[in-house]
Design a protein that fits this description.
By secondary structure, the chain is an alpha/beta fold. The chain is built from 28 helices and 14 strands.
């Protein structure tokens, strides 16, 4: 096969006195270059699948808090940075670039399979030494590094390795940019494939095998291409003796592309937080946001690669991209504050998820695509701006990629852990605008030094850009508090078409993990977390919150230690305060701004549980705390975020319930919230089947009042005992229980009969209802994908009626005599009122 080396139409001028180092050019045929694009696309596809799978696997070990996610991201991107920077120095130029690339891909696939089985083993070792404080964070970081650094170092080296097959000429650098673009295009496909098919239909094991198969195919194809092509390397001794010359002001270019990475990942953190409010924080929303972000990078890098091969000085277009980013970031901020919340479409108009996905993609494209396009264009332009003819292309690509990735790590950590919780999303976006201008100034600085006669012209342009940037930063507005409170349902409220439009905000806060709003509407207060209503002083919400506390506390004969998962408004945790036997109330909460705010505005309803001497707050992911804590409890009550929210399925999985079961004292009781609203039949069946697979004698209790309601409570004991109605009545009549009785009465539970009449069924009776239903596990995370599809469902009442159709009076569960027992029998046997 004939080979034709790529030739540049024009070469960049060498700086005066620079010594040109002769480097043997790889022989590249035009027909082989499309194959290289295919290789990089496959690599990007597999990498995104791995990223999603590995993050979910490791969150099961070190938790899903913002700090844990930051450690995971730092380890993942740190590996990419190290690989891209070190591979050109470690790997000899004598080696065939395609062969090296093939071995890297095969190694990534092998590590992918190892991680699938190795992470659970490392997790068991981690649990043995897990602790709190600084050492605990170091240990989490060590686990993330051990699991992620080996494969990601190989990933980071793949682009530099294949870049050595090209030349550092304008045409060659243009192809390097296109290889990067192909890699990003593959990442788009991998993101959508994993988010909408592999993990929805299958599980993490299947997704891992699919990614490893892609690595294998890419590796074999690269080996085949290496066998059919000749590589003529430069002499290694000559390379060491006479290093390639560096471009003038290359340090400024590296700084500019690092700032570009910083603003890109910082913006992704901020915009994902805000877009997930407006679109709904499902796994599909996060996949759409990431895919649109990557689409912009792909389109921008493609155009940037074309420009890089046709300009004599890429520093100016690179600077232009960074300065235009200030305008693009301001556009996104404007869209998030003034356009998307007022978008005249109510997602409840259609229960078809395809309609809403289409709407979400459209809104994401018009909101974030301009900025992501400019970030994508910056990378190939930075390659061209930093390059010199005769330079090792692998070293050039590796250093630029490492600088960009290092900036990305800094941006993600700074904005997620420091900027958003300390100054908020509005000020964070203002910082992004100023940083973009700084990146542009760094990119153009060497030009001002080299060409003093045009300094005033460019300096004047920068001064104008500075003034415009100041105006743009000043115009950035806060996202309406209604968007934080009502999320995807905000449009009718902002347009005054809902009673919620009359609400007044009492508290608005943006924390490290969540955004929180507390409102007042007439005689009721409402508590919202990241666009979802989580609690209120309304009677149905109060009944649920009190039921989650009082039901397990009264089923247990004398609870001493309690674990409450999720603080919320504090009412569930506060329900344990009146019990004289309770000695410790442990509350696991992810977001630190929630308990103080709830104490201020729901203190009466939650008995000021935060100030109670028996209360201990653990600020951690509940799954991680239960996994690592040695303590056992008499009652564990879980009131988590809705199951359609990304990441919360770990609090509804079979493995989670097994952890809970293992942390119960003898006679212990577990309670679990199960929402029927914003949920469909298949989702509810999966929740029930999963709970009953661990607690085969579990029971279901209803929060419905006079036919109105929207959720259930699941209750179970590893060694269930009958509930004696007479003993329970006598217990509530004791003077020491006067406060308990008053708390129940506030939620219209005026007697033991009222409380126990909420019984709605049990596992044995519901077996025909859940027959053949697959359970949700840590590996398949089935629930969050099912729940995300059924988010717009309005079938709650219908599902409840179907559950009640299996209800029979539990003769061996509820025992007693007298009028109260008769009242319970009558209530449970009475036909339920129609909806």
């Amino acid at each position: 096969m004939s080979k034709r080396p790529l030739k540049a139409r024009r070469e960049p001028a060498e700086p005066p006195g620079a010594e040109v180092v002769p480097v043997a050019s790889p022989e590249v045929s035009r027909s082989s270059l499309p194959w290289l694009l295919l290789l990089l696309a496959g690599s990007g596809c597999a990498a995104l699948i791995y990223e999603i799978v590995w993050f979910q696997l490791l969150q099961l070990v070190i938790g899903a808090s913002a700090v844990s996610l930051g450690l995971l991201l730092a380890a993942y991107m740190g590996g990419l940075c190290l690989g891209s920077a070190l591979l050109p120095r470690w790997i000899s130029k004598r080696q065939h670039p395609l062969r090296i690339y093939a071995f890297l891909e095969l190694g990534i696939g092998a590590f992918g399979i190892v991680a699938l089985f190795g992470v659970p083993l490392i997790g068991r070792l981690y649990v043995l030494g897990a602790t709190t404080g600084l050492f605990g964070l170091v240990l989490r970081g060590a686990v993330a590094a051990v699991c992620l650094l080996p494969p990601t170092i190989l990933m980071g080296g793949s682009l530099p390795a294949i870049s050595r097959w090209l030349e550092t000429t304008p045409k060659g650098i243009s192809w390097m940019g296109l290889l990067y673009s192909a890699n990003v295009a593959g990442a788009v496909f991998g993101c959508l494939l994993a988010g909408f098919y592999l993990l929805r239909v299958h599980d993490m094991a299947f997704a891992t095998y699919a990614a490893a198969a892609v690595n294998l195919a890419v590796g074999l194809l690269a080996l085949a291409l290496a066998g059919r092509s000749r590589h003529t390397p430069a002499l290694e001794t000559e390379d060491r003796a006479r290093p390639a010359p560096r471009a003038t002001g290359a340090a400024f270019i590296y700084a500019a592309i690092a700032i570009s990475g910083l603003t890109a990942l910082g913006a992704e953190v901020v915009w994902t937080r805000l877009l997930s409010l407006l679109l709904g924080a499902t796994v599909y929303t996060f996949s759409i946001i990431l895919a649109v972000f990557l689409i912009g990078l792909w389109a921008g890098s493609s155009v940037g690669s074309w420009i890089a091969g046709r300009v004599s000085d890429a520093r100016l277009p690179l600077a232009a991209c960074q300065i235009l980013l200030a305008l693009a970031i301001a556009w996104t901020a404007f869209s998030l504050a003034y356009l998307l919340p007022y978008w005249p479409v109510d997602p409840w108009l259609s229960t078809n998820p395809i309609f809403n996905f289409d709407l979400d993609v459209t809104r994401c494209l018009r909101t974030i695509l301009p900025a992501t396009f400019l970030w994508g264009a910056s990378f190939p332009l930075a390659l061209a701006a930093a390059a010199r003819r005769g330079e090792d292309p692998a070293q050039l690509t590796g250093e630029v990629y490492a600088a960009n990735t290092a900036g990305s790590i800094a941006g993600a950590l700074l904005f997620s852990l420091i900027f958003i919780p300390s100054i908020g999303t509005r000020a964070s976006q203002q910082w992004l605008i100023w940083l973009a201008l700084a990146g542009g100034a760094l990119a153009v600085a060497p030009v001002l030094v080299e060409l003093p006669r045009v300094t005033y012209k460019y300096a004047g342009a920068l001064a104008g850009a500075l003034a415009v940037t100041g105006v743009l930063a000043w115009t950035v507005a806060e996202v309406p508090w209604q968007a934080i409170a009502y999320g995807r349902r905000v449009t009718p409220i902002l347009r005054g078409l809902s009673l919620s439009a009359e609400a007044q905000p009492l508290f608005v806060g943006e924390g490290i993990n969540s955004s929180v709003v507390i409102t007042d509407r007439g005689d009721q207060r409402f508590f919202y977390v990241s666009g979802k209503s989580e609690a209120s002083t309304g009677i149905l919400d109060m009944r649920l919150q009190r039921l989650m506390g009082h039901l397990p506390a009264l089923v247990h004969s004398a609870p001493h230690s309690v674990l409450v998962v999720g603080f919320g408004a504090g009412v569930t945790a506060g329900s344990f305060v009146p019990y004289p036997e309770v000695q410790s109330i442990n509350i696991c909460e992810l977001e630190p701004i929630i308990p103080p705010a709830s104490d201020q505005y729901f203190g009466k309803e939650n008995n000021h549980v935060l100030r109670d001497g028996r209360t201990r707050i653990i600020y951690d992911d509940a799954r991680h705390y239960i996994l690592t804590a040695p303590d056992k409890f008499d009652v564990i009550t879980t009131d988590p975020i809705h199951p359609w929210v990304k990441g919360t399925s770990t609090l509804y999985s079979k493995e989670y319930y097994e952890l809970v079961k293992a942390h119960l004292n003898p006679g212990g009781v577990v309670a679990q919230w199960l929402p029927l609203y914003e949920s469909d039949l298949e989702t509810v069946k999966t929740e029930l089947a999963t709970f009953f697979s661990v607690f085969p004698k579990g029971t279901v209790w209803s929060n419905y009042l006079d036919g109105d309601g929207y959720d259930l409570v699941l209750l179970a004991q590893p060694d269930p005992r009958p509930i004696n109605v007479d003993a329970l009545r006598q217990r509530l009549e004791q003077p020491a229980y006067a406060a308990v009785t008053a708390s129940l009465a506030d939620a219209r539970f005026n007697s033991a009969a009222d409380l126990l009449a909420t019984y709605a069924g049990r596992a044995s009776d519901l077996q025909p209802f859940i027959a053949g239903v697959e359970t949700s596990s840590d590996l398949n995370m089935r629930l969050q994908y099912l729940a995300g599809i059924g988010l717009n469902s309005v079938l709650g009442p219908q599902v409840y009626r179907e559950i009640l159709s299996y209800r029979r009076f539990p003769q061996d569960l509820l025992i007693g005599t007298g009028s109260e027992f008769d009242a319970i029998q009558e209530a449970i046997g009475r036909p339920h009122r129609s909806f």
